[in-house]
Write a structure and sequence with these properties.
Keywords: Carbohydrate metabolism, Hydrolase, Magnesium, Metal-binding
Order of helices and strands: EEEHEHEHEHEEHEHEHEHEHE
Strand order of the largest sheet: 5-4-1-11-12-13
Low-confidence stretches: none
Organism: Shewanella salipaludis
Family: Belongs to the HAD-like hydrolase superfamily. NagD family.
Structural class: alpha/beta
Radius of gyration: 18 Å
Strand content: 15-25%
Mean pLDDT: 97
Number of helices: 9
Helix content: 25-40%
Function: Catalyzes the dephosphorylation of an unusually broad range of substrate including deoxyribo- and ribonucleoside tri-, di-, and monophosphates, as well as polyphosphate and glucose-1-P (Glu1P).
Shape: globular
Largest sheet: 6 strands, parallel
Catalytic activity: a ribonucleoside 5'-phosphate + H2O = a ribonucleoside + phosphate
Distance between the termini: 8 Å
Length: 248
């Protein structure tokens, strides 16, 4: 029985509205007993928040099934030396870092960690750039540059710090294979027994390809059929939506 890693936005939901058939698909996967991870690059919501979001759309999933780039960032940092972090992000990210034993501080941090936030300002950029320039390790939850309606996302918030310091962050989220390995560890799974389902060739499918997973593209979100030929890699399967998937 295969493990399932499934993206949320563009596969199960559009904003907070159900994509028809995705509820039936997820409930079938749970009934079959497949180990399931609902994986998102978005670090602003906790597992409980995401559970509530899907429940409101008609998809009932245990909280333990959710895995975010904030959780993967905390998992990554637990394997590194250092315990102090300067964080630009929301409560869900700092919550995961506190759980992992980190001190959140602007005094000699070992790491500068960037997530999504709407309260971004000059002082944050100034401090973060200074810390990175003086040796703090630069970590970002995900490389996405924007969300719906061109709302600035993590990659955009990293850009000024990159320009000032000349240093790139290490991105945890998709298409990095790190988040895939972290999600697999979360369910004690292995790549050869796992399928990833996503709507974006350049994040979900690329991450799965790089991590050695079987890949399923659904065209209900970002990537359309005409986008497939633009990339040098191919998904193993293509479906119009999650409700049509019949290979797991």
């Amino acid at each position: 029985m295969k493990n399932i890693i499934c993206d949320i936005d563009g596969v199960l939901l559009h904003n907070n509205k159900l994509i028809p058939g995705s509820d039936t698909f997820i409930h079938r996967i749970l009934a079959q007993g497949n180990p399931l991870v609902l994986l998102t690059n978005y670090p602003v919501q906790t597992g409980k928040d995401l559970q509530n979001r899907l429940d409101a759309a008609g998809i009932e999933v245990p909280e333990a099934c959710f895995y975010t780039s904030a959780m993967a960032t905390a998992d990554f940092l637990k394997h590194q030396q250092g315990s102090k972090a300067f964080v630009i992000g929301e409560g869900a990210l700092t919550h995961e870092l506190y759980k992992a034993g980190f001190t959140i501080t602007d005094i000699n941090p070992d790491f500068v960690i960037i997530g999504e936030t709407r309260s971004y300002n000059w002082d944050m950029i100034h401090k973060a750039a200074g810390f990175v320039a003086n040796g703090a390790r630069f970590i970002a939850t995900n490389p996405d540059t924007h969300g719906p309606a061109y709302s600035p996302a993590c990659g955009a918030l990293c850009a000024p710090i990159e320009r000032i310091t000349g240093r790139m962050p290490f991105y945890i989220g998709k298409p990095s294979s790190w988040i895939i390995r972290s999600a697999l560890n979360h369910i004690d799974g292995h790549s050869e027994d796992t399928v990833i389902i996503g709507d974006n060739m350049r994040t979900d499918i690329l991450a799965g390809f790089q991590a050695g997973l079987e890949t399923i593209l659904v065209t209900s979100g970002v990537s359309k059929l005409e986008d497939i030929d633009k990339e040098p890699f191919r998904p193993n399967h293509i479906f119009a939506c999650a409700g049509d998937i019949d290979v797991v």
